[in-house]
Design goal:
Length: 297
């Protein structure tokens, strides 16, 4: 079963979060209002509202309000470079990731998520690095996943890496290898099929990519992101753009079918759209595709 969700826009002139920013509602908004806003959209999943780990009263209020409306918190995200070459920043980001996983556990969220990062100074989207695909990078990804989980010892929340084409979390086989190597029950898969569409071959065979994910780690998928991607034309080189759902090349039907047949409920969260109207349009398309598959989300 799929629990569909997306950001909600409560405050006047609220802006959509960009890639790498927190999609959750602001920390000055009543949790009851946030939960009801999700319910009003027909959502059954949400991004974690912004809250400080030390604010126990607000955390309890969020859990209570969301439980009352049957809204599952899909993820708490920390979008910074875990392998920053600056030792001070690297240590800072890892400390914040521990806190984010602890927050996910306190909120009852399905997972805490970050990208693995890039071997560069500063944000991990600044530079590509060949070292990102090295055996050393794989071993560091294993170490970090174990470290975060062993520090927090979560009972329900999972630590997850978001899939990205610029590091070792870039393919179903690599994810399966990580799951085996990390060897922790609370290490899960945050499935973003759009981010696995990293070349034309994958895009035109999206159903096969989704089937491989199901085959390799179906029971470890804890949440997912919904998007669409399109190959840029003229086709002088391979450039893949995120686009409005329904205007790209991704096999959204295969994605929804695969999630629906999982043994566990999985949140499907739309992201990276420009405003509330675009999210409404994207949600409508995902629902239309799902309905064509005989699935109500």
């Amino acid at each position: 079963m799929i629990r569909l969700g997306a950001p909600v826009f409560i405050e006047k002139n609220a802006k959509a979060a960009a890639a790498g920013e927190n999609h959750g509602a602001g920390d000055q908004i009543d949790p009851v209002v946030i939960a009801r806003a999700h319910k009003a959209k027909g959502f059954r999943a949400a991004y974690a509202p912004i809250v400080d780990l030390k604010d126990g009263e607000r955390i309890r209020a969020i859990r209570s309000a969301f439980a009352k409306e049957d809204i599952v918190i899909a993820e708490a995200g920390y979008w910074e470079n875990l392998i920053d070459l600056d030792p001070t920043m690297r240590a800072f980001h890892r400390k914040k990731m521990v806190e984010t996983l602890a927050l996910a556990e306190e909120l009852g969220a399905r997972c805490a998520v970050d990208t693995f990062g890039s071997y560069c100074y500063g944000p991990n989207n600044l530079k590509h690095s060949p070292k990102n695909f090295s055996e050393e990078a794989f071993e560091e990804a294993v170490y970090l996943a174990r470290y975060f989980i062993d520090e927090v010892k979560p009972k329900t929340a999972h630590f997850t890496y978001e899939i990205f084409p610029f590091d070792v979390v870039d393919s179903p086989s690599s994810i399966a290898r990580l799951l085996k190597a990390v060897d922790r029950k609370q290490f899960g898969v945050h499935l973003d099929l759009a981010n696995l569409m990293n070349c034309p071959r994958a895009i035109w065979n999206g159903a096969a990519v989704m089937d491989e994910c199901i085959k390799l780690f179906a029971d470890r998928i804890v949440t997912s992101h919904g998007k669409d991607v399109k190959l840029r034309e003229p086709a002088i080189s391979v450039i893949i753009d995120e686009v409005m759902p329904g205007t790209g090349h991704m096999d959204i039907g295969a994605f929804v079918r695969g999630l629906h047949r999982l043994p566990q409920e999985v949140p499907l969260m739309l992201e990276h759209l420009g405003n509330e109207q675009e999210y409404d349009q994207g949600i409508a398309h995902y629902r239309k595709v799902a309905l064509a598959e005989g699935i109500v989300i």
